[in-house]
Amino acid sequence: MTEGTTSAAAEGADALSRLEQEGEIAADYLEGLLDIADLDGDIDMDVEADRASVSIISDSGSRDLQKLVGRDGEVLEALQELTRLAVHRETGDRSRLMLDIAEYRAKKRAELSELGAKAAADVKSSGEPVKLRPMTPFERKVVHDAVKAAGLRSESEGEEPQRFVVVLPA
Fold first, then answer.
1. Which strands make up the sheet holding 153-157, listed edge to edge?
2. Fewer CB within 10 Å of terminal CB in the chain, N or C?
């Protein structure tokens, strides 16, 4: 093994342990929140790509947890930001942690991937750009990834909160 390889492996291990630490801090914060709100939920932690991922799931059905998702995921987005702030307070580093509650984001990701693939198919057949509805940064990222996987390119246009994806011909 060369010195550069050892260094790269150590950096990768450091990044993984840092992301695991973020997940632990987030899990503790969210457990406290669930206790305060008197809600049942299990916390699952993972590291996906280059970010910590924390999910709150419930065996008793996700009805109680829907309060933490809110309309169109608004409460979930706010809780994600609060959780990121809690991690930042503990570590001093900005967190890109992703929070999912009652599989809301997982289901949304599947819907958005399908939307991106359909828009790409429409652009391929018509040769004309397709503009989609305004979306959150998370939603736009999922659509961009689906369009890229379909072999086309896309761009975000507009200003928040009306920012949207435009799928472009090849």
1. 130-134, 164-168, 153-157
2. N
